[in-house]
From TrEMBL:
One of its GO terms (biological process) is cell wall organization. It comes from the Bacteria. GO terms for molecular function: N-acetylmuramoyl-L-alanine amidase activity. Keywords: Cell wall biogenesis/degradation, Hydrolase, Signal. InterPro entries: Cell_Wall_Dynamics_Protein, MurNAc-LAA_cat, N-acetylmuramoyl-L-ala_amidase, SH3-like_bac-type. This is SH3 domain-containing protein. Residues 1-45 form the signal peptide. It comes from Bacillus mesophilum. Residues 48-110, 122-184, 194-256, 271-334, 347-409 form the SH3b domain. Pfam families: Amidase_3 (PF01520), SH3_3 (PF08239). PROSITE patterns: SH3B.
Length: 600
């Protein structure tokens, strides 16, 4: 009996000791966890507790860092979120208890107070866009109190981020900076002589806009002197009867260029040519590094030197478009070494390929325009002088037309502009006008259908490439629906050297604007870079850069492929601009130049 009692007590104490040991072990383990946590940084600590603020009215929050990931929800303007991390151009945030991703180009730092600080200013601002909305506060979420128009000038009161407060007929109101030409006493601008011009034609129409469809405001006679305000796409903005008006640049001779100020000795050339030596050279509107960027030229291109000023050279870098390039990136060639001998063209004709083609008095872009011809007109070719063709006009007189912009028929060979290169010849290029048929794409604020605009731009680009000898394939040439798989298949089946998908963009925030180019694979990036840079320079639209984008026609494409968004139809002003024939032509010319540059 005693043995049994001792045995029972022994078992009891043994079990109690085991229990205490387990409890002690649990306590030690729990302390270890706490200690480990104390020395382990939280995810948010990696970003120093940073936060971001949404910069657009509505922004998609996605489950991963890319456009192909599912949408978790939407964030609204000025909402702030904790920043957890960053991957390329995507930011990871804490969103409703889970992790989400947003595009960093649509956010700002939450502690960036620059957009909320009003800076007092003085001076004048001139409106550069018709129908510009005036708002009650600095942002698109504020109410519209009126509209102002191109050429009107108002006093500046203050600035807030990208918005400026003006004294308007509706009281103090705010407008977006991009649509203003500032003349503020708070900014030191380089002084420049007032630009003047002389009208070179009789009864020249003065129009309300830079198109032949603009209203005729009046006429000016030959010899009239005008004040030049700006130049755009072959048109000159002038001051006419106290208001802004437009006249074709063919009828205005810039007198400022021929003045000889003591600080800027100008010299006219006599037909010499300049060969571009830099890989890519910026064309500016004035002979200085402070001049606006209006285009680009590339290595190997050759241009007639029209004028020189302090190591800068004026050239015609595109048909009807003039600008200045830095002379230290040029190789000067004397006219005698570059011009070809005159050559008779018996039995040959030329066919005009562009409406409004200039026919000049002599073989130079400086020569007076004696007549204009439209596409399809045919003229007898008399002789070839350098790259120009002397033709017989309908009244029996003669004139000269640039040989590289007409089609030669008969014994004469087709003329290519010297130095322009023909790197796209025999290249297979697939052009993909986005959407079509039952798929309209986006619809602009004024009702513009993206699918229609895509096709127009694609056809212009196709024409340029075909004329340069490229093998061009359009994924669609009419308003038809083409599946994405078929678009990609046309690229692989034809062994495309380049695939370009053309689109126009849209977003809920109507203030967003600009062009973006996308690629998916690394081997596609150089194509995106070259085409984007040339197109941005030609169109002069806001440059949003080239970046990686997860689009089907890129991701599933084994060829070098890019997708280009040529502007925002959701922005009323940009919709009107990108729909114009001038912009369409500029966009097509830019993409063409980018392809030429890429294949060189």
């Amino acid at each position: 009996m005693l043995y049994c009692v001792r045995l029972a007590f022994g078992i009891f104490f043994c079990e109690r000791r085991i229990f205490l040991l387990k409890r002690k072990a649990s306590t030690v383990f729990f302390c270890f966890i706490l200690l480990l946590a104390a020395f382990t940084p939280a995810v948010s600590a990696e970003t120093g507790g940073a936060a971001i603020k949404i910069a657009v009215d509505e922004l998609n929050v996605r489950s991963g860092p890319g456009l192909s990931y599912p949408i978790l929800g939407k964030a609204s303007r000025n909402e702030e979120y904790q920043l957890l991390g960053q991957e390329n151009e995507w930011q990871q945030i804490s969103y409703k208890g889970e992790q989400g991703w947003v595009a960093d180009w649509l956010t700002t730092a939450a502690n960036d107070d620059s957009s909320s600080v009003n800076t007092s200013m003085s001076g004048q601002a001139t409106i550069s866009e018709d129908g510009l909305r005036v708002r009650s506060g600095p942002g698109t979420d504020n109410s519209v109190i009126g509209t102002v128009h191109r050429g009107e000038t108002y006093s500046i009161k203050q600035r807030n981020g990208e918005w400026t407060q003006l004294e308007t007929p509706y009281g103090l109101g705010w407008v977006f900076n991009d649509y203003l030409q500032m003349d503020s006493s708070d900014h030191e601008e380089p002084s420049a002589a007032e630009k003047t011009g002389t009208i070179t034609g009789n009864s020249v129409n003065i129009r309300s806009d830079s198109t032949t469809g603009g209203d005729i405001l009046g006429k000016l006679e030959q010899g009239s002197t005008v004040k030049i305000l700006s130049e755009k796409n072959g048109w000159v903005e002038i001051s006419f009867s106290g208001q802004s008006a437009w006249v074709s640049s063919d009828y205005v001779e810039d007198q400022t260029a021929f003045s000889s100020p003591s600080t800027d000795e100008s010299e006219l050339t006599s037909g010499n040519t300049a060969l571009i030596k830099a890989d890519s050279l910026t064309v500016r509107n004035t002979p200085t590094l402070n001049g606006d960027r209006i285009g680009t030229v590339t290595k190997g291109e050759s241009f007639t030197m029209l004028e020189e000023s302090n190591d800068w050279v004026k050239i015609e870098y595109d048909r009807g478009a003039f600008g200045w390039v830095a002379g230290w990136f040029l190789e000067r060639q004397h006219a005698s070494s570059t011009q070809t001998a005159e050559k008779p063209l018996s039995g040959s004709t030329v066919t005009i390929t562009h409406d409004g083609t200039n026919i000049r008095a002599s073989s130079s872009t400086n020569s007076a325009v004696v007549e204009r011809a439209d596409a399809g007109q045919v003229f007898e070719a008399i002789r070839l002088e350098s790259d120009w063709v002397e033709i017989k006009l309908t009244d029996g007189s003669t004139g000269f037309v640039a040989g590289w912009i007409v089609s030669m028929n008969g014994q004469a060979a087709q003329i290519e502009k010297r130095g322009s290169g023909n790197s796209v010849k025999n290249k297979t290029i697939v052009i993909d006008p986005g959407h079509g048929g039952r798929d309209n794409g986006t619809t602009g604020t004024r009702g513009t259908l993206e699918k229609k605009l895509n096709l127009q731009t694609a056809e212009l680009l196709a024409a340029k490439l075909k004329s340069a000898g490229a093998n061009v394939i359009l994924t669609r040439n009419s308003d038809t629906y083409i599946p994405l798989e078929s678009r990609v298949r046309s690229s692989s089946v034809n062994g495309a050297d380049a695939f370009i998908s053309i689109h126009y963009d849209s977003i809920n925030d109507r203030s967003v604007r600009g062009m973006t180019t996308y690629y998916y694979y690394g081997f596609q990036e150089q194509l995106a870079s070259d085409v984007h840079a040339a197109t941005a320079a030609k169109t002069r639209i806001k440059d949003r850069g080239h970046r990686q984008g997860d689009y089907y026609v890129l991701r599933e494409n084994t060829q070098k492929a890019i997708l280009i968004e040529l502007g925002y139809l959701s922005n009323p002003a940009e919709e009107m601009a990108v729909s114009s024939p001038q912009y369409q032509e500029a966009a097509a010319a830019g993409m063409y130049e980018g392809l030429v540059r890429y294949f060189k």
